[in-house]
Amino acid sequence: FFLTIMPSMSVPVHALSSSPPPPAPLKRQPHSVVFGAPSSSSSEDHPLLTLSPPSSLLSPPRVRDDALFWLRDDSRTECAVLEALRNENAYQEGVCAPLDSFRCVLYDEMKSFMKESDTSAPVPHGPYEYYRRTVESKSYRIHCRRPKNMEYGDDFEAAKPLDVEAVSAEAGKLIAEMQANGGKLPDDKDAFHVDGFYDPSFEVTGEDEEILLDENEEAKAHAHYVVGCVAISPSHQLMAYTVDTSGYETYDLRIVRLDTAKKANHELVDEIKNIDGHVTWGKDDDTIFYCKLDDAHRPYQVYRHTVAESVDDDDVKLFEESDERHWVDLSKTRSGRFVVISSDSPETSEAHVIDLDDNNGTPTPRVIAAREHGCRYTLDHRGSLFYLVANRSANKTKEYLESTLCTLPVSAVLDGSAKEKGRTLWREVPSFPYEGEKDPERPERPIRMLESVSCFQTFLALSGRRDGYAAVWVLRPKSAPQGEHEEATPDFHVHQVFFQEPGSTVLEGPNRDYESKMLRVCHESMRMPSRDLDLDTRAEHLPLFVVKQQEVPGGYDQKDYRTASVAVPPEVRSTCFDGDEVEANSPPVRMTLMWKADMYEGEAIPKNAPVLLYAYGAYGVCIDPEFDFKRLPLLNRGFVYAIAHVRGGGEEGRNWYEGATGAKYLTKKRTFLDLVECARYLKREGICAPDRLCVEGRSAGGLTVGA
């Protein structure tokens, strides 16, 4: 984590003038590090080094001097390293000591905008609604459930039938208003939203609520306590959860019997120690699947465990990943038929499935497609097909930088032909084509990308990005499948879920039930607190219903704040530090800004403001515009909060990360240059004064800022 402060803030610079002297410079010791193709002897010692294509390795190897290599201490026990860290921390504390009282003021203000006692939106799952609660002054969550409300979810037809035609007609009126308004929703509407269809308030009585897990109670016995996952069994009578009490991200699995009469302190029926934090139930309550870790703390083996009947030494190993670049993860298709074993590296995906309908002894994982370097995909299951979001298709000469939607027959996977024929069996869905949506100004870049697919009994949901922002699409079949069988390339009606709020983020929310006709989505922006919405896929125009709106105490009103998206055009991005230059064909870098309106009345964009600029730019991760109450104390003091969507992230698709103009590996420098140019743009345009810019980055973003 790096925070670079370029004075001044709301605290006078002279308040820092009496800071202590910095620690002595770190000693430098000669040390050479070799990068590139290993020698033959090295390959024998490390066989995995031979897996990389020779052309991808530096040959002959390059040698770099690293005089601070001695600071690497994997054991965390070297006295010299620990002493250097203590000196740096002491210096930081001394420099920031004058800010202690102001820091307390900011902290108290941040807390004033946080609702400490709160309840998450209930998620329908089987006969229950599951949710989490937080309680003021307690640090951990409480996991709960209650019987499904007859006014909510699929069962509400019994109490208050949905008039699909009436709802569709109301949404149709909004469509007409949009068409008459140049394609925009009326000012008083921000979605196809029908209020009052059911009561979204969430009142839980003591008689209704069943506490499944109170993390606060369990944490009392441990100095460190983190819950990895909570998984409810198919019958809803057992709960599996994983806990890390060491801080080393090694988890213990606990399985308890949920006794509705007790409502707490449930009976422990099974336990497995030292495993990965994610587990998946089988078809019934008798079987659960989990991963073991290797010496490098990598999930690499998949085991099947019989609940309460076998100890972990007798568990059946189903899969092992020998390539140290690949990490294994477990999930289950929403249909409940398949357990998915995903083995992924940053470059390549491979998935195997276990058919839970196969009762013939030990199940055999079946591969979706044999591993192919650079081929990435995710999948879900519906009827007789697997649906895949993949960066390649059946045409071996065609590689998509983004991703396309394909199908694969389940029968081909189960009979082994998918392993033999690979992605030649994949078929692209014609109603959601990869090509056809191009930016006229930049034809080389698709303006739509896909990330994942979720399958339901009567529709599909796709998650991805459009025009640089997160997006969700709903695909409804034009014809119903015949039993469990459907065409290899079914045809769909395609609808995008969109909102009036500019630059907002819409994501698929938690959706557990395969038979559900409602799709849970989450929507927020920089100035709009998050809200959970249910989208009714039965109505033609997909009306939305508010399930929960995030409450922000302290008198917050989003109308008091403004947001804007600006772009740093390539023609003004010139020579940067150390003589490096931004390429002439570099794409514009987008920044998202937020500020308090009454601090800059009459200005479309603030001028001469203090700015906190945030950047990440790594691993293709997107930093989307989301609401964060912790920014409000700064905004209320006149700060502008800015997010620089620099290359290396994924805001503009995979091309933003690893394409011809992306920032990965040998082109990683572009991430740093983009941030420099964003900071220069803020000054050049007069948005911030030269001495009033703060830059923040965390984790990999610390590298972006620190470089």
Topology:
Elements: E1 2-6, E2 32-35, H1 40-45, E3 62-65, H2 79-96, H3 100-112, E4 118-119, E5 123-125, E6 128-134, E7 142-147, H4 156-159, H5 164-180, E8 210-214, H6 215-219, E9 226-232, E10 238-244, E11 251-257, E12 267-275, E13 279-281, E14 287-293, E15 299-306, E16 316-320, E17 327-332, E18 338-344, E19 349-355, E20 366-367, E21 377-382, E22 385-392, E23 399-409, H7 410-414, H8 417-421, E24 427-428, E25 438-439, E26 442-446, E27 448-455, E28 460-466, E29 469-477, E30 492-497, E31 505-508, E32 518-524, E33 531-536, E34 544-549, E35 561-568, E36 589-596, E37 609-615, H9 632-635, E38 640-644, H10 655-658, H11 669-684, E39 688-697, H12 700-706
Parallel strand pairs: 37-38, 37-39
Antiparallel strand pairs: 1-39, 2-3, 4-6, 5-6, 6-7, 7-8, 9-10, 10-11, 11-12, 13-14, 14-15, 15-16, 17-18, 18-19, 19-20, 21-22, 22-23, 23-24, 25-26, 27-28, 28-29, 29-30, 31-32, 32-33, 33-34, 35-36, 36-38
